[in-house]
Specification:
The complex is a heterodimer of chains A (218) and B (220).
Chain A: H1 2-22, H2 38-41, E1 75-77, E2 80-82, H3 89-92, H4 111-124, H5 126-129, H6 138-141, H7 154-158, H8 161-170, H9 184-199, H10 210-217
Antiparallel strand pairs in A: 1-2
Helix pairs in contact in A: 4-9, 8-9
Chain B: H1 10-32, H2 35-38, H3 52-58, H4 63-66, H5 81-88, H6 99-107, H7 127-132, H8 138-141, H9 158-166, H10 189-206, H11 215-218
Classes of the chains: A mainly alpha (218), B mainly alpha (220).
Chain lengths: 218, 220
């Protein structure tokens, strides 16, 4: 029985030493996880945003060659289906064949579209312009971005839908371009939702029913 | 006498020793040689000290401001430097910690971010289908909004995927709450669990969540 005791003591000591060395499971590690079959885990194929020596610039994600035409599925607008390469208001914010901004949204604006606009506005616009569009987003609150447009300014209320779309797409002044991050359809949804935000502050008492006006007076 | 007397003890001692060694080795392998240990806790040093805790947590920015393709693509993109510069052209605009970002925005040379969450090349995971059906980022990535440096929080083992695919009702939530990582049905834990149980089954049925378990759902 003495041998068993010795054995257990030595075994416990080794276990404790190994445990002390490797630490608790799931502890912080700066080194990438070990892969047992790396040739199967990491196959010789292109993955996005990975380095790749095949191309001169060393990137796996290549930009399409210049002049490439997007042949994606058409988007259903109020004026019919359009493709991303067409010179139409949906893509440019301008009337076809001119530099004039279109007055109104080329999309069919309904509750679902406005809802989409709200989601996209809250994601991409609210950080600076604020959830209410008054320019009091988080960047103003922490005092890092002093000049943010108030979307309720008369200038912006009177601006055409096409020009707002153009500003979102290409940016303006200190504001960056959101065209690369937000799809055209979603940018139009944001324009529609911006209109809804503006309208929320332009309501007149006359537009209310008698009951609602009475409730206001209380 | 060929064998010394102590050898008589071998039939009693050997099973005890083997059971002891076998048990500890099995426990060690389960705890340490599975993704629960090999993957969980991985926290590489990133080239730019970007803090999700500040941006997504404190400032309350939506995940999709930067990871804008997550709803449309199988892949959730890493934002380009121009996305950072939407704010950082004004905020901390001369900070040395952002030198690499400014450089990348100016030259187009990518920032060498280190990928933390990565599945093997024979696994085809699609972000957009999961997000569209109300499976939150938090289910796989943990509380990113509380991490200064991103840490691998879940195991990403095959059983980790299958646990959810076998019972999606336990994780499904309203799709508009997907990027709200701390969201719960209720502040009361018991009530929250009850609402999850009640709504989870309904969501899975109403939205026809298939959560396939066939091999070819993920492996092609």
């Amino acid at each position: 029985m003495r041998y068993l005791l010795y054995f257990i003591l030595v075994f416990v000591a080794i276990t404790a030493a190994v445990f002390g060395l490797v630490g608790l499971p799931g502890h912080l590690s700066r080194k990438p996880p070990l892969e047992v079959f790396p040739d199967m885990d990491r196959q010789a194929k292109l993955r996005p945003a990975q380095p790749n020596g095949f191309f001169a610039n060393g990137l796996s994600s290549q930009l399409p060659p210049e002049g490439t035409v997007v042949r994606s599925a058409p988007v259903a607008t109020a004026e019919g289906a359009v493709y991303a390469y067409q010179d139409v208001a949906f893509n440019t914010g301008r009337a076809t064949g001119s530099t004039n901004f279109v007055e109104t949204n080329p999309m069919t604006v309904d509750a679902a579209f406005l809802g989409r606009g709200r989601t996209q506005y809250d994601i991409s616009c609210a950080p600076c312009h604020g959830a209410l569009g008054d320019g009091n987003g988080i960047t103003k609150k922490i005092g890092v971005m002093p000049a943010v447009a108030n979307l309720h300014d008369q200038r912006l209320v009177e601006m055409t839908d096409g020009e707002i779309f153009n500003t979102i797409t290409h940016g303006k002044g200190l504001m960056g371009a959101y065209g690369p991050m937000v799809a055209a359809e979603d940018r139009w949804a944001i324009v529609a939702y911006t209109r809804a935000l503006q309208l929320s502050r332009l309501g007149m008492p006359e537009e209310l029913s008698a009951e609602q006006r009475a409730a206001l007076k209380k | 006498m060929i064998f010394p007397k102590w050898t008589n003890q071998i039939p009693f001692l050997l099973p005890i020793g083997l059971a002891l060694v076998g048990g500890v080795v099995a426990a060690g392998v389960t705890l340490y040689c599975t993704p629960k240990n090999t993957r969980v806790g991985y926290q590489p040093v990133q080239p730019v000290p970007f803090s999700h805790a500040i941006h997504a947590g404190q400032l309350g920015m939506d995940c999709r401001y930067c990871h804008s393709t997550v709803e449309k693509s199988w892949m959730a993109n890493i934002p380009s430097a121009s996305t950072c510069m939407n704010c950082h052209s004004q905020v901390l605009k001369d900070d040395p910690r952002l030198a690499l970002v400014r450089d990348s925005a100016a030259t187009g040379k990518p920032i060498p971010w280190v990928q933390v969450h990565i599945v093997p090349d024979y696994v085809y995971f699609n972000h957009s289908v999961h997000v569209a059906r109300g499976f939150s980022c938090v289910e796989c990535h943990g509380r990113i909004d509380q991490m200064d440096e991103v840490r691998h929080a879940k195991s990403f083992s095959m059983s980790f995927c299958l646990d959810c695919h076998r019972n999606p009702a336990a994780a499904i939530r309203p799709p508009d709450k997907v990027t709200d990582l701390g969201w719960q049905w209720s502040t009361n834990a018991a009530e929250s669990a009850a609402l999850q149980a009640a709504n989870g089954k309904k969501f899975v049925h109403d939205w026809r969540v298939e959560s396939l378990q066939s091999c070819s759902a993920c492996h092609r």
